[in-house]
Automatic annotation (TrEMBL):
It catalyses: L-tyrosine + H2O = phenol + pyruvate + NH4(+). GO terms for biological process: tyrosine metabolic process. The modification N6-(pyridoxal phosphate)lysine is found at K259. Its EC number is 4.1.99.2. It comes from Pelosinus fermentans B4. This is Tyrosine phenol-lyase. Its cofactor is pyridoxal 5'-phosphate. It holds the Pfam family Beta_elim_lyase. Belongs to the beta-eliminating lyase family. InterPro entries: ArAA_b-elim_lyase/Thr_aldolase (IPR001597), Beta-eliminating_lyase (IPR011166), PyrdxlP-dep_Trfase (IPR015424), PyrdxlP-dep_Trfase_major (IPR015421), PyrdxlP-dep_Trfase_small (IPR015422), Tryptophanase_CS (IPR018176), Tyr_phenol_ly (IPR013441). GO terms for molecular function: tyrosine phenol-lyase activity. It comes from the Bacteria. Homotetramer.
Length: 459
C-alpha cells in the first residue's frame, strides 16, 4: 500500500499563472543560456526548482507585517522586533541584519579570520568557502565519510567527524582555528542533518582549545525536524525547544533568511561575543548599511521576524519535509539514483550513477540539468565539479565524490501534483539516459563559476 503524505497545512489565497513552453522554445532558451540553468529567464521555466533561496511563498501574516514597515534610516521598529525574535527563538545575544546570508559570511570571515588560519567545516558551501579563502584561510572538510557516499543511509550524514577535527587541531594548533563552521543541514551532502549528540561532542572538543562554533543556520528548522524524528531523546520535544538547545552549543551563526526564515530577501549574523559584535557593526556600515537595517527595508525585517516564528510550527515543517520525501520516494521506486536518505530541502539526483558514460570532466550533472529542462521545462541546478571550482594553488579542478543535480523545493509554493510532473519527467529522462552527451565549458569566471559559466554540447 502506498504511503500517505500530509496534506498542505495552508490554503491558497492568491495564484501566479505559469505557462508550459514548447520543446523548441526550451531548446532555444538553453542554448542562449549556454546550457547553464542559472542563465535562463524565469518566465522560460515551467516548474522552477533551481533553489529554495528566496523563492518562498509568504503568509498573510507576513504580508500584513510588510505594511507595518518602519523605513527609518536608524533605529527601525522592525529591527528591534527582529532582534527580539532572534533572541527568543534562537537564543543569540546580538543580531546584525544583512541583505542575505553571504553578507553575514563576508562580515564573519573578515572579523574572525587571519591569513594562515584554518577553518574546518562539515563539507564546504560555495559562498562560505569563497569568503573564508578570500580572507586568507584554508578550508578543511571534517564531515563524516558517509556524507560522500550517496547510497549510505546513515541518518546523520551531516555529522562532524570528531577524529578529523581533533587531528586538524593536533596538526595546526587551536590558535590557528578561529572557529568551526557547522552547517545544519549540509546542503552539498544532499540536505543531510547533524545530530544533537554530535553538536554536543563538537562543543566539548572546541571548548578545550578555545575554538568557537559558528553555525550555518540556513536550514536549522529542517535540521531540528530530523533531530526530533531520528533522535529518541527528542521525539517529544517541540521544534522550538530543539532549535534553542542546538544553538546553545554555539557562539554565533550566519543566517540566510531566504530559506528557513520564510522570506524572499534578508539574513543576519548572530553572535554572543560582544567584541566580535562591535567589529561586525563597524563592517556592516561599510558593506551593507546601518547596524539597525543592514541593507534591508524595515518591512523585510518585519516579514523575517514573523517568518522565524512561523517556521517553528511543527505542522509547517512536517509538511515541508514530507513534500520533498514524496518526490524522492517516487524517483527511488522507479530506480532513479538519488542521494539517500532524502534530505529536507531537495532531492539530489546522483549524476555519476545516472550518466555513468559521461566522465566528470564532461560535467555530467550540468548536462543532466540542461536535458531535464529541455524535456520538461523543470529547472534544476548542478552541484558537482562545477560548483566545487578549482584549487587556487594548482589551478586544477576539484573532483568531488558527489556529482549531483539538485531538485530544490521552494517552501509553500508547489503542490504534490507539481511533484508528480517532476517525477514523471526525471523518470522519462532516466529511461533515455544513454542519449545524453557531456558538455564542454566555453566560458569560466574566476570565482563561483557555476553561476555564470557557459557550455556547449559535445557530440
Amino acid at each position: 500500500m502506498e504511503r500517505k503524505f500530509m496534506a498542505e497545512p495552508y490554503k491558497t489565497k492568491m495564484v501566479e499563472t505559469i505557462r508550459m513552453t514548447t520543446r523548441k522554445e526550451r531548446e532555444a532558451a538553453i542554448e542562449r543560456a549556454g546550457y547553464n540553468t542559472f542563465l535562463l529567464n524565469s518566465k522560460e521555466c515551467y516548474i522552477d526548482l533551481l533553489t529554495d533561496s528566496g523563492t518562498n511563498a509568504m503568509s498573510d501574516n507576513q504580508w500584513a507585517g510588510m505594511m507595518l514597515g518602519d523605513e527609518a534610516y536608524a533605529g527601525s521598529v522592525n529591527f528591534f522586533e527582529l532582534e527580539k525574535t532572534v533572541r527568543e527563538v534562537y537564543g543569540f545575544k546580538y543580531v546584525v541584519p544583512t541583505h542575505q546570508g553571504r553578507g553575514a559570511e563576508n562580515i564573519l570571515s573578515q572579523i574572525a579570520i587571519k591569513p594562515g588560519d584554518y577553518v574546518p567545516g562539515n563539507m564546504y558551501f560555495t559562498t562560505t568557502r569563497a569568503h573564508q579563502e578570500l580572507n586568507g584561510a584554508t578550508f578543511v572538510d571534517v564531515i563524516v565519510d558517509a556524507a560522500h557516499d550517496s547510497q549510505n543511509e546513515d541518518p546523520f550524514k551531516g555529522n562532524v567527524d570528531l577524529k578529523k577535527l581533533q587531528d586538524l587541531i593536533d596538526r595546526v594548533g587551536g590558535d590557528k582555528i578561529p572557529y568551526i563552521c557547522v552547517a545544519v543541514t549540509v546542503n552539498l551532502a544532499g540536505g543531510q542533518p547533524v545530530s544533537m549528540e554530535n553538536i554536543r561532542a563538537v562543543r566539548e572538543i572546541t571548548k578545550k582549545h578555545g575554538i568557537k562554533i559558528m553555525f550555518d543556520a540556513t536550514r536549522c528548522i529542517e535540521n531540528s525536524y530530523f533531530i526530533k524524528e531520528r533522535e529518541e531523546a527528542y521525539k517529544d520535544k517541540s521544534i522550538g525547544e530543539i532549535v534553542k538547545e542546538m544553538f546553545s552549543y554555539g557562539d554565533g551563526a550566519t543566517m540566510s533568511g531566504k530559506k528557513d526564515c520564510l522570506v524572499n530577501i534578508g539574513g543576519f549574523l548572530a553572535l554572543n561575543d560582544e567584541e566580535l559584535f562591535q567589529k561586525a557593526t563597524q563592517l556592516v556600515v561599510l558593506f551593507e548599511g546601518m547596524p539597525s537595517y543592514g541593507g534591508l527595508a524595515g518591512r523585510d525585517m518585519e516579514a523575517m521576524a514573523r517568518g522565524i516564528r512561523e517556521s517553528i510550527d511543527y505542522y509547517y515543517i512536517k509538511h515541508r519535509v514530507e513534500q520533498v520525501r514524496y518526490l524522492g520516494e517516487k524517483l527511488d521506486q522507479a530506480g532513479v539514483p538519488i542521494v539517500k536518505p532524502i534530505g529536507g530541502h531537495a532531492v539530489f539526483l546522483d549524476a555519476k550513477r545516472f550518466l555513468p558514460h559521461i566522465p566528470q570532466d564532461q560535467f555530467p550533472a550540468q548536462a543532466l540539468a540542461a536535458q531535464l529542462y529541455i524535456l520538461s521545462g523543470v529547472r534544476s541546478m548542478e552541484r558537482g565539479i562545477i560548483s566545487a571550482g578549482r584549487d587556487a594553488k594548482t589551478g586544477n579542478h576539484y573532483y568531488p565524490k558527489l556529482e549531483l543535480v539538485r531538485l530544490t523545493i521552494p517552501r509553500r509554493v508547489y503542490s504534490y501534483a507539481h511533484m508528480d510532473v517532476v517525477a514523471d519527467s526525471v523518470i522519462e529522462l532516466y529511461q533515455n539516459r544513454n542519449q545524453i552527451a557531456g558538455l564542454e565549458m566555453i566560458y569560466e569566471p574566476p570565482v563561483l563559476r557555476f553561476f555564470t559559466a557557459r557550455f556547449k554540447p559535445l557530440s
